[in-house]
Amino acid sequence: MINCKKTQRFKGFTLLELMIAVAVVGILASIAYPSYIDNISRANRSEGQRELLRLASLQEQYFIDHRAYTTDMTKLGTPADPYITDSGFYSIDAVVVGVTYTLEATAKSTQATNDSSCLTLSVTDTGKKAATSTNCWE
Question: Name one Pfam family in it (predicted).
Answer without folding.
Answer: N_methyl
